[in-house]
């Protein structure tokens, strides 16, 4: 990272500069807390783009954070909190363990209160980025014709390519959960879920209605591609999704939704454009004694094994242009990870329709 061009961090729609910190590897959570207590001292760049109230005793401001992040602000035996208070000459009040509520910062100097808040937000964002995602924006592709197409694809692959290394029935996607992912979110309490739902509702008028004119999007799911450089060593095969009329409207919608959520601070930007793909085969689905651990976000669990790839050369040769079918797309969902509704699709925390 260049000193004159430091990394920028988006927190709640505000942009902060993240100064260089020393990379350190630690073996357990308690030691990590020490690291973040130290690094918090050099990450902040005061910004007063929030309300600091003047009181009889000085200055005060509040921060809304999920209770899951409080322990990282407190640190091992309270050391992180005490360090922040000492450096900024403030008092930081954090709700008790297991309780939701605002963090309150008070101090005699306005700049000290601002600095403490900035450091806390940067510290919280650092740990938020380490959490597994809980929700994702999605377009459901599980309409009957597409589900039937996937089952036909699966039957064909298993009948003609079953002798190829690593190919077996459990690595195929569940037809009821076929989808396109726009982006992932870490939402740690009901307030954050409500914020995401509210933003999605605003996107209907600002983005969806203007592009779709209140009509569904006609899509075609056809052809397959892989995600790495060697077709003999593949972990994911995905179906290509495109507009039936050849337009870019679906791509434009996905990109603008991603940009709006990234700009709000609710979503981490991973790519400049959304990759429109529907996973049809994934080695994370492979059933073995460690399947549950391997599909979870914590890869550090005892007994974790590397994914077993498969040889996709014959699949690509025989089914490269396979047509899964066509569908009309009506809705974008805020989907909850590791869940299912009555249809078998992911439980929706919120959704908006095009028409």
Using only C-alpha atoms, the radius of gyration works out to 24 Å
What is the number of strand segments?
14
Determine the structural class based on helices, strands and strand pairing.
alpha+beta
Q: How many distinct helices? A: 9
Strand percent estimate = 15-25%
Low-confidence stretches: 21-48, 289-305
The quaternary organization reads as single chain
Which sequence of SSEs, written as H and E, runs from N to C?
A: EEHEEHHEEHEHEHEEHEHHEEE
For the sheet with most strands, the description reads: 4 strands, antiparallel
Question: Mean pLDDT, rounded to whole units?
Answer: 85
Terminal Cα span: 46 Å
Shape: elongated
Helix fraction, binned, reads 25-40%
Neighbour order of strands in the largest sheet: 3-4-6-5
């Amino acid at each position: 990272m260049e000193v004159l061009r430091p990394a920028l961090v988006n927190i709640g729609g505000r942009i902060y500069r993240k100064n260089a910190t020393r990379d350190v590897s630690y073996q357990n959570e308690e030691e990590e807390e020490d690291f973040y207590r130290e690094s918090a001292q050099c990450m902040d760049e005061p910004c007063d783009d929030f309300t600091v109230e003047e009181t009889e005793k000085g200055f005060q401001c509040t921060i809304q954070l999920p209770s899951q992040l409080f322990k990282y602000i407190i640190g091992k035996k309270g050391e992180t909190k005490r360090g922040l208070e000492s450096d900024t000459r403030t008092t930081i009040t954090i709700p008790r363990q297991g309780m939701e509520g605002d963090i309150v910062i008070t101090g005699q100097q306005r700049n000290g209160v601002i600095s403490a808040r900035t450091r806390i937000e940067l510290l919280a964002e650092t740990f938020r980025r380490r959490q597994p995602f809980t929700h994702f924006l999605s377009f459901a592709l599980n309409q009957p014709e597409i589900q039937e197409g996937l089952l036909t694809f699966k039957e064909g692959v298993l009948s003609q390519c079953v002798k190829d290394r690593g190919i077996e029935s459990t690595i195929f996607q569940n037809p009821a959960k076929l989808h396109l992912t726009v982006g992932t979110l870490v939402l740690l309490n009901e307030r954050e879920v409500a914020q995401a739902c509210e933003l999605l509702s605003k996107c209907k008028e600002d983005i969806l209605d203007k592009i779709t004119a209140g009509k569904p999007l006609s899509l075609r799911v056809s052809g397959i591609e892989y995600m790495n450089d060697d077709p003999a060593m593949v972990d994911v095969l995905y179906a290509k999704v495109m507009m039936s009329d050849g337009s870019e409207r679906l791509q434009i919608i996905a990109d603008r939704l991603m940009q709006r959520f990234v700009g709000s601070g609710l979503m981490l930007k991973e790519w400049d454009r959304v990759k429109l793909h529907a996973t049809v085969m994934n080695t994370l689905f492979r059933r073995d004694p460690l399947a549950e651990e391997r599909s979870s976000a914590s890869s550090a669990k005892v007994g974790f094994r590397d994914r077993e790839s498969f040889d996709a050369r014959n699949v690509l040769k025989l089914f490269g242009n396979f047509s899964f079918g066509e569908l009309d797309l009506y809705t974008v969902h805020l989907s909850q990870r590791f869940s299912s509704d009555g249809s078998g699709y992911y439980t929706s925390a919120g959704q908006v329709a095009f028409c």
